[in-house]
């Protein structure tokens, strides 16, 4: 169904969505303080951290915000981790930050999110950089694909941290659109890029016909379209 006034945003840091109806979430997804009399939830959406290449000062400021605002739902909307070492691009090997160190830094950031938001729902949507792990296994270690311990949830101990992971389709061999719904808003990581952020948003509006928020392009842009 096409929405009457679809709105698409591309965002490189975060967006705050207030007034999210409680009824849009299932009982299994409820967090501890959903049982209060509040009619709405507060969701904070962030993307494209690309750990360990993030800015520490910016990350510190960001972490202060969800805690101060008593966030109910934190959504990491793709490219939280960079996975530089297993990229298919020809990259100069790093000498100071190897793959193991990159994972340790990412684990530390995730633990800090959970400490700051002990009762909140936290969701991590797989983006194209996280998909590098799956692609690497398919191309270089098919025998290990699907085994316990070599997936993003296992490597980052997401079950213990009570962080949901939303992967691309299990049969996907290349990254494709990956998203979740937050009320009537579609939030995720799409594979469309453009020189100007708003152009990429316009293409998605015309193709999907829904309100959405995405990362991936590392450019801010917004566009407003109307259903045909």
| Helix-strand category | alpha/beta
Estimate percent helicity.
25-40%
What is the domain total for the residues?
1
Strand order of the largest sheet: 7-8-9-1-10
Explained architecture:
- By secondary structure, the chain is α/β, with parallel strands linked by helices.
- It has one domain (7-224).
- The chain has helices spanning 56-68, 99-116, 131-140, 152-155, 158-161, 197-208; strands at residues 7-10, 14-21, 40-46, 73-77, 121-125, 163-166, 178-182, 185-189, 212-214, 221-224.
- The strands form two sheets. The protein has a five-stranded mixed beta sheet with strand order 7-8-9-1-10, with helices on one face. A five-stranded mixed beta sheet has the order 2-3-4-5-6.
- The protein is globular, with a radius of gyration of 18 Å.
- The N and C termini lie close together (12 Å).
């Amino acid at each position: 169904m096409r929405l009457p006034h679809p709105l698409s945003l591309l965002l490189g840091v975060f967006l705050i969505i207030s007034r999210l109806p409680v009824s849009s979430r299932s009982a299994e997804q409820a967090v501890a303080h959903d049982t209060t009399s509040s009619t709405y939830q507060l969701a904070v959406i962030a993307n494209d951290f690309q750990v360990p290449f993030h800015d520490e000062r910016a990350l510190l400021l960001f972490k202060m915000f969800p805690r101060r605002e008593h966030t109910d739902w934190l959504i990491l909307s793709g490219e939280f981790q960079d996975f530089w070492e297993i990229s298919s691009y020809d990259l100069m090997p790093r000498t100071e930050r190897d793959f193991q160190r990159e994972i340790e830094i990412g684990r530390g950031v995730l633990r800090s999110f959970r400490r700051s938001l002990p009762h909140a729902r936290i969701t991590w949507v797989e983006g194209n950089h996280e998909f590098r792990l799956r692609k690497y296994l398919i191309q270089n270690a098919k025998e290990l694909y699907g085994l316990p311990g070599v997936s993003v949830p296992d490597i980052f101990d997401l079950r213990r941290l009570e962080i949901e992971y939303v992967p691309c389709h299990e049969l996907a061999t290349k990254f494709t659109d990956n998203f979740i719904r937050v009320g009537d808003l579609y939030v995720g990581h799409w594979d469309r890029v453009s020189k100007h952020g708003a152009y990429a948003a316009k293409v998605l509006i015309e193709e999907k016909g829904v309100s959405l928020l995405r990362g991936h392009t590392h450019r801010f842009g917004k566009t407003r379209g109307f259903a045909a």
